[in-house]
Amino acid sequence: MRQRGVGLTAAGFVIAMVLTAVLVRVDPASELPGLSQAAPREIPVAVVGPDPDAATMRDALNGPSEHAVAARVSPSEKAAEASLRDRAVSAVVVMGDGADHELWVASGGGTAEAEKVEEVVSRTLAVSGQTVRVVDRIPVAERDPHGVGPFRLGTAWAILGVAFAALLGLVFGARSASASLVVVRFAGLAAGAVVAGLGGAFLSEVVVRRIDAPFLALAGLGALVVLGVGSMTLALIAWFGRLGLALAIVGLVIGIPGAIGAWPLTPMPVVWPTLLAWLPPGAATWAVRGLAYFDGVDVERVLLMMMLWTMIGLTATSVAATAVEPRRALRDLHPSLRAHPVGATIGAFVLTGILVVTPALPAFTATDLDPPVTVTCQTTRTPTNVKELNERIETVSDVDGFVGGDVGASTFLADGRGLFVFGDTIRRTDYSSRTMVRNSMLIFDKTCAGLVQRRDRDAVIPDRADGVGYWPMSVAAVDLGRDLVGVMAQRVEQTGDDLFGFRNLGPAVAIFQVEPGRAPVLQRVVDLGEDDPDTSRPVWGAAATVVGDSVYLYGTSRTSDGGFGWAVSVAKTRLVDVTDQSKWRYWDGERWQRDAKQAAQLIGQDGGVSQTFSVFREGKRWYALSKRADFVGTDLVVWTAPGPTGPFTPAPPVAKIPSTASELRYMPLAHPQLFPEKGTMVVSVSRNTKDGDVQADPSLYRPEFLRITLP
Predict the structure, then answer these.
(1) Are the CB atoms for 298 and 320 separated by under 8 Å?
(2) DSSP per-residue codes, 391-446
(3) Would you say 377 and 450 are in contact if contact means Cβ atoms under 8 Å apart?
(4) Measured at the alpha carbon of residue 260, what is the angle toward residues 254 and 265, in degrees to the nearest 5?
(5) What is the predicted pLDDT for the residue at 135?
(6) Does 649 have pLDDT greater than 80?
(7) In whole angstroms, what separates CA 431 from the centre of its chain?
(8) Half-sphere exposure of 151 toward its Cβ, with a 13 Å CA cutoff?
(9) 228, 234 in Cβ contact below 8 A?
(10) How far apart are CA 214 and CA 218, in angstroms?
(11) d(Cα 570, Cα 540) in Å, to the nearest integer?
(12) What CATH number belongs to 43-136?
């Protein structure tokens, strides 16, 4: 009988080896529906570049709600490459000087992850007009272009471990009659494991030639995987019988997607896909990749895992052998557990979980995935008219630290929320970093208002490394499934401590992406042109109007002898191309053309507009709204035109907004979507004290609203 059992076992081992050899030649990811649709989550990515660009890129990558990647800033290219080779990150974004960057990937660590990172980074950069060139720093073997060789081999060894243990249980019974017979059973399993390790390594390196790794190291890994998985399967069978074998098989089946890199459970918290990836198929695949592509980095974790499984399996099987029963194929629960089947089932799952959680712990992402920006909701009753809005502005102390701000352009998002951007912003004194920043952003809906805050609590468009900041002028939004918001700003350099101690160095654009109900996430800041304080060069974006997916960008310019006010020119482009001035077109008085120097003046400088103003349309008519002659003027004037290129004709003043001996009133802006009424427009007027000291009474640094009748 014993000789027959040995013969059956040997025959079963041979059949299992043959079937496994077939598995090494087949790609389950292409045969099983859905497994090729990989969607990994929170893939660790390093970002290398100068501040604040690298932090902006990190926040842009971490911003989407699906959290496909978990980006962090790396101090240098050398450190980032070391992290890639140490398997601490799966990709590295190396930022270039302009709009072209490099993405380093390691397809040897998993093609699904490499492809997903490339997709996410390319999509994120495309939003703001940037491109990326992919460089595979650790590529897969030439004969294994899809990188499935390690998966096939690792999964084959895991299957062999379960198959060998199942054969031993079927032939010799679920439990041995004594501890000495357990040793014999494990000796047979060890012999099969050695053969499987050598055979798998030989097939993969010599026959199929898809893995290039030290032969003996690879064979030893395979033997230990088969032995570890088989030992735990024997223990599960000894204590739980058919239920134990079923648990082992389930572990194999649900571990295959994790080993491939496909996450059927993507909507679940990341803990579950991570654990599934460290079931035997995934753990074995990780180790084979480590030997083949990463010089053995982190393989010891899998080796220790399998040694632990072997010791626990041997001990648990030996303890189970103390109860002598008639030899039968796969009996039910161990006699000591039959009285408590529910507890036995729970115990099996708990034991299996502990065995998997321990080696999986280092795999959990350590990247700080706190939202790159937040919007806290400060409950408020929504004003329904201009009077209520002004009363609210005068009486509220602050909005999450926002006390007062300059200018204040607005737009509405596709989800119905309103968005305001401000220039120099005063914040509560408990902001330990800076109580005044160059810009800020407010979001409001029907129930609450909130300040958009970066993690560092600095300006929402961060200053350049040299201290140059950004003053928003206009804002444009296009619904592309997610709102694409362009904030046109002017670059500002501080030159003194007085009210006018600054100079404008030229325009810039900040691109934000906004998912419904979520905070705007900065994607990129682009300076348009070289730093140049020459005011005769148009500052594009002083006003902006969206039509479809295009945006008309109005520029203001002035010369020293041209009179008070600013002249107006116009350019147009698609909002998705706004960062690339080569795609802009400029109106020369007759047609749209490429040369910005040929842009015609739509409104002259003498008696012209303020440096920042508004252009909007109602019906078929276009309007420009501004304080005539900038700071020295008193008249709020509306210019009318049949189209975006003019000609713009001034109408009689619609209101007086003079400055006083103590207060400046300047840069009125139109808000077409705020309390709309046909034939009228809600206008905000910026306010400031003439000495610039508004800290004593910040309410003087808040806009005042009025409604005008359009001509």
Answers:
(1) no
(2) HHHHH---BTTEEEESS-EEEE-TTS-EEEEESSEEE-TT-SS-SEES-EEEEE-S
(3) yes
(4) 50
(5) 96
(6) yes
(7) 27
(8) 26
(9) no
(10) 6
(11) 8
(12) 3.40.190
DSSP letter, residue 603: B
User: How far apart are the C-alpha atoms of 521 and 422, rounded to whole Å?
Assistant: 16
- Looking at residue 689, its pLDDT comes to 81
For range 680-698, the mean pLDDT: 80
- The pair of three-digit structure tokens given for residue 299, joined into one six-digit string: 């393989």
Tokens matching residue 46: 């390093």
Give the residue from 39, 85, 41, 87 showing the smallest Cα distance to 62: 41
- Residues 40-60 have pLDDT tens digits of 567 889 999 998 889 889 988
Helices 299-320 and 179-202 meet at what angle, rounded to 10?
150
User: Exposed/middle/buried for 267, CB within 10 Å: 0-12, 13-18, 19+?
Assistant: exposed
- Note the CATH number of domain 373-709: 2.115.10
Domain ranges of the chain: 2-27+148-363, 43-136, 373-709
Determine what percent of the chain is predicted with pLDDT higher than 70. 82
- Alpha-carbon distance 472 to 488, whole Å? 6
Backbone angles phi, psi at 91, to 5 degrees: -160, 160
E runs forming strands in 279-320: none
Asked if residue 71 lies in contact with residue 78, where contact means CB atoms within 8 angstroms, the answer is no
Predicted local confidence at residue 636, as pLDDT: 96
The pLDDT of residue 18: 55
pLDDT digits (tens, 9 = 90+) for 415-430: 999 999 999 888 877 7
| Rounded Cα–Cα distance for residues 680 and 369 (Å) | 45
In 3D space, the residue among 23, 10, 298 whose CA is nearest the CA of residue 154 turns out to be: 23
For residues 665-690, give the mean pLDDT. 93
**Beta strands across the sheet bearing 402-405:** 402-405, 425-427, 436-437
Residue 240 in contact with residue 334, Cβ under 8 Å?
yes
Q: Cα separation of 440 and 460, whole Å?
A: 5
Q: Where are the alpha helices (DSSP H) in 46-148?
A: 53-62, 77-85, 111-127
pLDDT at 399: 80
User: Which two three-digit tokens encode residue 436?
Assistant: 């005044």
How far apart are alpha carbons 278 and 254 in whole angstroms?
10
Tell me how far the alpha carbon of residue 65 is from its chain's centroid.
Answer: 7
Print burial letters for 217-252: b (CB count within 10 Å at least 16), e (below 16): ebbbbbbbbbbbbbbbbbbbbbbbbebbbebbeebb
Q: How far apart are CA 425 and CA 457, in angstroms?
A: 12
| 529-538 LR contacts (CB < 8 Å, sep 24+) | 529/581, 530/506, 531/468, 531/491, 531/493, 531/505, 531/506, 532/505, 532/506, 533/493, 533/503, 533/504, 533/505, 535/504, 535/559, 537/506, 538/569, 538/596, 538/599
CA distance 199 to 593: 70
Whether residue 262 has pLDDT greater than 60: no
